[in-house]
Design brief:
Strand 14 (212-217) and strand 15 form a beta hairpin. The strands form 5 sheets. The protein has an 8-stranded antiparallel sheet with strand order 16-13-15-14-18-19-17-20, sandwiched between helices. It has a 5-stranded antiparallel sheet with strand order 6-7-11-9-10. It has a 3-stranded parallel sheet with strand order 3-5-4. The protein is built from 14 helices and 20 strands. Helices cover 31% and strands 24% of the residues. The protein is α+β, with helices and mostly antiparallel strands.
């Protein structure tokens, strides 16, 4: 245990100095840390990998890091059930599961998050038949404010289960989870460019006709940079190390970073730079293990907002957001990202109850982002949008409750598990309200 360190997220744009910072190595140590915090009248928050753009972690109370709780506890190859501690990262777990012939059914395009952080914020990949990562959980171990450990699953307590899968850390400390893996599989990947207009006109065919489809598009460019990935029986035929480095690191990170720096210093060049970046993104075809296709390194310093809207509004929303991003006052040298997921039933899942299109917007470090994000958010809200819990937004509990049919049921579970608001901070108070603020279910 140490006192007074500064904690920062991966992007360096969120930081805090907790009164107490602890790195427990076991469930028992988590319980002791919670007990000490409660006795000292300190609130408790948990840091995963810090891969969030929000202030969800920030606290002046007790901050727990679960990075030392990163063990695989059990693997059942026959059932595909995998039990792990909450601090293990998606990337580390993917590689370990592959050694047992197993895999995540889907992943996002970044895999450095902890399993508890990723599921607790509704993190997702792309694939219209595949829900977000939290839907792959089969049970979870929660340490509560009173020190009790609760194993939660759908069979024993379906109400708590639907609340706990996406909870933004407001119910307790997740210390372990059991997830449902699938047999390891190979993906054939085609990353290329296509006219944006044609991509949007044929969006349903592209989304429904592929296991995984998504795309990026730069403001001012007529192109979409599409990612089309499908399962294949072929053996992995990965890119060469040089080819992988050139595409994933040099082009997608270093060269892109340089383009953003030039655009930041000479704003008038941004439309031209965006068109050049799109036109030179090229085509890459390869076959590899699923998790190596899903995730790629992201080094460019950005901030991000992402909204989940009903799938049927996808093309219209992309067109309108592009128009906003092309306004001169916003100077956006970064692309929109568009992905699709299946519905699920977690109470606070942004994709809950509907086929969903996620639209993410970004802004390069050092360029003002708030006015741009607020303008985009108005469009998203008009389409029934729900923000990604780990990315920037300006919503409050008052506005969010209108978007979630089961909002009050979540709040009832929260009041039962954490009646005194131990697991709260300014962000939780803003987006969920005080404990007990919901109406009875």
């Amino acid at each position: 245990m140490s006192k007074g360190p500064v904690w920062r997220n991966f992007a360096g744009d969120q930081s805090c100095r907790p009164a107490v910072f602890e790195r427990p190595t076991s469930r028992a140590e988590v319980g002791e840390a919670i007990r000490r915090a409660a006795e000292a009248d300190r609130t408790v928050r948990v840091a995963g990998a810090g891969h969030s753009f929000t202030d969800a972690v920030l606290t002046d109370g007790t901050l727990l890091s679960l990075d030392r709780m990163n063990r695989v506890l059990d693997v059942d190859r026959a059932t595909g059930l995998v039990r792990v501690e909450a601090g293990i990262t998606l990337g580390a777990l993917s590689a370990l599961m592959y050694d047992h012939g197993l895999a995540f059914a889907n992943l996002g395009d970044i895999d450095v998050q902890s399993i508890a952080g990723a599921t607790g914020t509704g993190t997702h990949g792309t694939g219209i038949t595949l829900p977000n990562l939290s839907a792959g959980l089969k049970s979870m171990e929660l340490t509560l404010a009173d020190g009790r450990t609760l194993e939660v699953d759908e069979a024993t307590d379906p109400d708590t289960w639907r609340a706990a899968r996406v909870s933004v850390g407001a119910l307790g400390v997740v210390t372990a989870v059991t997830l449902q893996a699938v047999p390891a599989f190979t993906l054939g990947a085609v990353d290329t460019t296509a006219p944006l207009a044609a991509t949007l006109d044929n969006l349903d065919e592209l989304v429904d006709g592929n296991d995984h489809f998504g795309f990026f598009t730069f403001p001012h460019s007529p192109l979409a940079m599409t990612k089309t990935w499908n399962r294949t029986a072929a053996s992995p035929s990965p890119r060469s190390r040089l080819g992988e480095w050139f595409h994933d690191m040099f082009l997608s990170n270093y060269a892109y970073w340089g383009v953003c720096l030039l655009g930041r210093s000479r704003r008038g060049l941004i439309p031209w730079l965006n068109r050049v970046a799109s036109a030179n993104s090229g085509t890459t075809r390869y076959t590899d293990r699923s998790y190596r296709v899903f995730a790629t390194p992201r080094r460019v310093p950005l901030t991000e907002m992402e909204y989940a809207i009903p799938r049927e509004h996808a093309a219209e929303a992309v067109r309108v957001v592009r128009e906003i991003a092309e306004r001169r006052e916003f100077d956006v040298p970064t692309p929109l990202e568009v992905r699709f997921v299946a519905p699920d039933d977690a109470y606070l899942s942004p994709a809950g109850g509907r086929e969903t299109c996620y639209i993410a917007v970004h802004q390069f470090a050092g360029i003002p982002w708030e006015a741009f994000f607020r303008s985009v958010e108005q469009v998203m809200v008009a389409h029934g949008g729900r923000p990604h819990w780990g990315k920037r937004h300006f919503q409050t509990a008052e506005t969010l409750r209108r978007q979630y049919p089961h909002w009050d049921r979540f709040q009832a579970v929260r009041a039962r598990l954490d009646p005194h608001g131990l697991f709260t901070n300014a962000y939780v108070e803003r987006v969920l309200g005080p404990v007990g603020a919901g109406e009875p279910a």
